[in-house]
Structure formats: C-alpha cells, structure tokens
Amino acid sequence: MKTLNRGLLIILASLLLMQTACTNQEELVIGNPYPLISGTKWHYMDTDWEYDIEFLSDGTLRTQHPNDNSPNNDTWEQSGEKVYFYFNNKYSIYDGSFSGNNIISGTAESEKGAVWNWKATRIEKRLDLNK
C-alpha cells in the first residue's frame, strides 16, 4: 500500500512539475525578438556606395549619401525582422531583414528598374531621439 501511495505521489508531482515547466516556458516569450531601429545609426554598404544612415524616431532618415539632393523626403518603417527605407519619395526602395542584432541586409530597386544588394551594420544603438 505504501508503494502504491508513493508511486501515485511521484506521478502527481511529475505532472505538476511538467505543467509548471510549460507555463514558465510560455512566460519567457516576451515581445518582439528583433531590435527596434528607431533612434539608431548604421553604416550602409553596397557595390557602389558606403555611408551612414540614422533611423530617426519620427520615421524619417538622416543620411550621408552623396547623391541625396532631397533628404527631407527619405523615410523608413519596420515590421518585426523586416526593415524598409525609401529615398526621394520612394524613387529607391530598400527591403531588408535582420541577420542577427547588428546586421540588416537585403535588396533595393530604383524607379528605373535597377536592382542591387545592400548591407548595413549597426554603429550606434540609441541616439538622441529629439534631433
């Protein structure tokens, strides 16, 4: 009888531990696993250019691209691991994804149909968001 009670107690304790482990595992999944790029600065590279870009908190870009003659219409957006940014009212559209926390890479296309690959590496995590 003691063996039966002990066996039943072990089974109940095991079930309770499994339920607790499953519950704790669900609680560990918190929010978006991809870093937010708002307020960060990145070094952009493709086969023709290298320059820095900042993803400002208001959805605009600040860039050092030497051919960007109208910087006031450059924007960006993020959806999870996907990052999109646009130069000159979407004349050029950049579509990228995170490769780890500090690298974004993808393809871009111009309104004229040119397509190229690009990569950006994080150089600053958080900037003054009021600039």
Word description of this protein:
It is a single chain. The chain folds into two domains: 1-30; 40-124, no CATH class. The chain is built from one helix and eight strands, in the order αββββββββ. The protein has one helix at residues 2-28, and strands at residues 40-45, 50-55, 61-63, 75-79, 82-87, 92-98, 103-110, 115-124. With 131 residues, the protein is of the alpha+beta class. It has an eight-stranded antiparallel β-sheet, with no helix packed on it. Strand 1 (40-45) and strand 2 (50-55) form a beta hairpin. The model is unreliable at 23-29 (pLDDT under 50).
Question: Helices, strands, pairings?
Answer:
Layout (H helix, E strand, L loop, with lengths): L1 H27 L11 E6 L4 E6 L5 E3 L11 E5 L2 E6 L4 E7 L4 E8 L4 E10 L7
In total, the number of domains comes to 2
Average residue pLDDT: 82
The poorly predicted ranges are 23-29
Order of helices and strands: HEEEEEEEE
Structural class: alpha+beta
Work out the helicity level: 10-25%
Question: What's the tally of helices?
Answer: 1
Adjacency order of strands in the biggest sheet: 3-2-1-8-7-6-5-4
- Rg over CA atoms, rounded to whole Å, is 24 Å
How many beta-strand segments? Answer: 8
Main sheet record: 8 strands, antiparallel
Q: CA-to-CA gap between the ends?
A: 75 Å
Report the principal-axis shape.
Answer: elongated
What is the beta-strand fraction? 35-45%
Offer a concise description of the structure.
With about 130 residues, the chain is of the alpha+beta class. The protein folds into two domains: about 1-30; about 40-125, no CATH class. About 20% of the residues lie in helices and about 40% in strands.
